[in-house]
Amino acid sequence: MSEQQAVERKGTWRLKDGVNRIWRIGRPMAGIPTVDDYRLEEASVPQPGEGQLLIRNIYIAIAPGIRPIMPYAGFEPEVSNQPSKGRVDASDDEILMSHMTVGDRMRSGMVPSMSPHTGGNVGRVIESRHPGFKAGDYVFGGRFWQDFEVVDGDATLRVDPEDLPIEANLGMVGLSAFTGWVGYRRFCEAKPGETMVISAAAGAVGMMVIQMAKAEGLQVIGIASGAEKCRFVTEELGADACIDRLTADVGAELDRLAPKGIDIYFDNVAGNLMTPVFDRLKPFGRLIVCGMAAEYNGFEQSSISTGMILGKRLRIQGFVVTDYESENDAFRADVSKMWREGKITYKHHMYNGLESAPDALAASLSGAYAGGKIIVQVSEDDSKA
Known about the structure:
Blueprint: E1 3-6, E2 19-25, E3 38-44, E4 52-61, E5 121-128, E6 138-142, E7 148-152, E8 157-159, H1 175-188, E9 195-199, H2 204-215, E10 219-224, H3 227-236, E11 241-244, H4 250-257, E12 262-267, H5 274-278, E13 281-289, H6 306-311, E14 315-318, H7 328-340, E15 347-352, H8 357-366, E16 373-377
Parallel strand pairs: 1-15, 9-10, 9-12, 10-11, 12-13, 13-14, 15-16
Antiparallel strand pairs: 2-3, 4-5, 4-7, 4-16, 5-6, 6-8
Helix pairs in contact: 1-2
């Protein structure tokens, strides 16, 4: 079943009447952003236009993948580059998520995307000027770090607290879990008995992939940062083993746990971890490039051998989950059923108060938390009243 872990941080859920607090980018950032890199401003509560909703945000999703589109101070890692880099004419590209600049509102979802599956917040409708929603509805659709937000109704999903806890729409059936589901279902081509390694195994994507792989009879080896995360990966998620990358020699541990090699590497980290895992892929192995958390802060950069790709006949697949949003309904139905049947674990790591959002993002980028999906609770969750 879903487990929620509360984390005490500064901040409250009390809102000021008529005041909308908004986090903005304060300056270009070096490495992992700190609270001093942002500014928290107060503004009036916005009013919805035709076809829009005013929502009170309750939960905000935090994900390390936002870092590459935030402004860098000095060195800018390759991962921050737009997909259009290296081409003379990229005018036909569809841009789902533009880069942020100083002064922009800090995001939790994808902007300028109008897809109803690319939000980052769950909230409650205060006022509706859209025929499909009414005041009091719970919705997934906010995209910014702020108390109140105006959203387009066509880019918003109604959520039912009788079906799943509303915060599950950012965790268990949120975008990160959907990423893991798509990556495993579409690209791993996994077979019972194969060996799979998953980096950032205790994170929001890794949790989903581990449980799907174990359900289909794979040997699963997780890699995580710290003993507490490794315990979660093996004891609660069911992985066969977990390597603590902070204390262990990853290559040596893989030789011990999988002496014949690895069939699938589902990578959420890249960086220095890439080489010891990549080198141990079997012929016809698969490398699924899902995330690059170690490179987002500019500290590490990975490289792989093209000769090994050829010689081992390896397949490398990068993907962006928004390319597969037509499969979101099937994903939600699949995972909701597993949850109701008690067949899936999904852990939330909760921060309290909008003020704690910068700390939450820093923790997600550094790995300094106990695993699970990081969520910030901004206001009272009256769906549980």
